[in-house]
Write a structure and sequence with these properties.
Layout: H1 9-32, E1 42-47, E2 53-58, E3 69-77, E4 97-102, E5 105-113, E6 118-125, E7 145-148, E8 168-173, E9 176-178, E10 191-196, E11 203-209, E12 215-220, E13 225-233, E14 251-256, E15 259-263, E16 272-277, H2 278-281, E17 295-299, E18 329-330, E19 336-337, E20 347-353, E21 358-360, E22 377-383
Parallel strand pairs: 6-7, 16-17
Antiparallel strand pairs: 1-2, 1-10, 2-3, 3-7, 4-5, 4-14, 5-6, 8-9, 8-10, 11-12, 11-22, 12-13, 13-17, 14-15, 15-16, 18-19, 20-21, 20-22
């Protein structure tokens, strides 16, 4: 039996519309630039209804088709509303893009509210958060979130196909694609499309000197290195950042236009620290970062804003955990493919220098203002 044979006419129509839309998006992406041969380029689609399919299309294999499209999960509960007042950093992202990607959520900006100093958003969550909070306690689902059956650490939420900050988002409705903008409200049957493209130059490492005026340096696959910022406040402690509950020690828990969040606790415990740009530290909701030991504050050399700017707070970074096995992908044509054989995000390996050279990140749980007192340097390696 072919994959389409058992589908009702309505579902076959949706499938054709998705394939056509993916084809158009793929053609547009190919015209923009020619990334490295091994670079990832994929598209995620979420059918916004209970039981709706969540698909991955490998666009490095050309036009979307049954051989390069995979069903990787399903929707448990669709979104029917927009979060009108989202977190402050949504202001710095572009409408109709991913403004934050984390092990516990993907956040999509719908439109900005400059007079309120924030934006509005729609979220996508892993199965651990369906009807539960991060600590496992019961919690009512919210209407602005698409809840999925995909677990944290697999595929989308810190896995091989997490959306990068700034990835373009479209909505397919009634046979047409549209951007998310002022007045948009999700409807049952919408299909959200997230296209993830690689940066022009592959990032291989980030180094942070943990001292006042310390150098923040990026290294790239083309063998170039660049100073991308300076440290205005060193980090000396760890704190209770809830999302670290779903991330292992030494992993990138979250990335958005104003935060790089690092977990220092084992999965199932809470502990970590954040690296934030100077202008975000001046916002009302982040005033505590100026004195709290759990935050490193970085700034640009020329005084320009770093929020939403690559490589630290846009385009290059994404959540990455690497502690969970990802099941093989099965294409619509029935072909089984190991995740490692599909172009995917690189792994992130974090090392620290505590005075005796680089070693793997050590475990630090809960609130401890002095856990990183000896920290001299942080290096994040990106490896295929």
């Amino acid at each position: 039996m072919t994959p389409n044979a058992a589908l009702p006419d309505g579902m076959r129509g949706i499938r054709k519309l998705i394939c056509l839309t993916l084809l158009l998006l793929a053609a547009g992406g190919a015209a923009q630039s020619q990334p490295e041969a091994s670079a990832y380029h994929f598209l995620l689609s979420f059918e916004n209804r209970k039981g709706g399919e969540i698909r991955l299309t490998d666009l490095t294999q050309g036009a979307p088709g049954d051989d390069n499209t995979y069903v990787i999960g399903h929707v448990l509960r669709p979104a029917t509303a927009v979060r009108g007042l989202s977190f402050h950093a949504t202001l710095w992202g572009k409408s109709s893009t991913v403004v934050a990607s984390a092990v516990n959520a993907i956040h999509i900006k719908v439109f900005g509210l400059a007079h309120l100093d924030r934006g509005s958003s729609i979220s996508i969550a892993p199965r651990e958060l369906f009807g539960r909070a991060l600590d496992g306690e019961p919690e009512a689902p919210v209407d602005y979130c698409v809840y999925t059956d995909i677990e944290s650490g697999v595929y989308l939420f810190g896995g091989s196909f997490s959306p990068v900050q700034g990835a373009r988002v479209r909505c397919l409705r009634g046979g047409r694609t549209t951007r998310l903008a002022l007045g948009f409200t999700p409807e049952i049957g919408d299909v959200f499309l997230i296209e993830v493209t690689p940066p022009k130059t592959t990032l291989t490492s980030l180094t942070f000197e943990n001292k006042l005026k310390g150098r923040v340096e990026a290294a790239f696959a083309n063998m170039t290195r660049s100073a991308v910022g300076k440290v205005e406040k060193r980090v000396t402690g760890v704190g209770r950042f809830p999302g670290s509950y779903l991330a292992p020690v030494g992993s990138i828990r979250a990335s958005h236009a104003g935060v790089l969040d690092i977990s220092t606790s084992p999965r199932g415990q809470i502990g970590g620290f954040q690296i934030i740009p100077w202008n975000h530290s001046q916002s009302r909701e982040m005033a505590k970062s100026r004195v709290a030991p759990q935050y490193m504050i970085v700034d640009s050399y020329g005084g320009g804003e770093l929020t939403g700017v690559p490589p630290l707070f846009g385009e290059h970074l994404f959540p990455r955990v690497g502690d969970r096995s990802e099941p093989d992908l099965v294409s619509l044509s029935g072909r089984r493919v190991p995740v490692a054989q599909v172009p995917h995000l690189p792994q992130a390996r974090i090392e620290v220098d505590l005075g005796q050279g680089l070693v793997p990140m050590r475990s630090a749980v809960g609130l401890d203002d002095n856990a990183l007192l000896a920290l001299r340097r942080i290096v994040i390696h990106f490896e295929q």
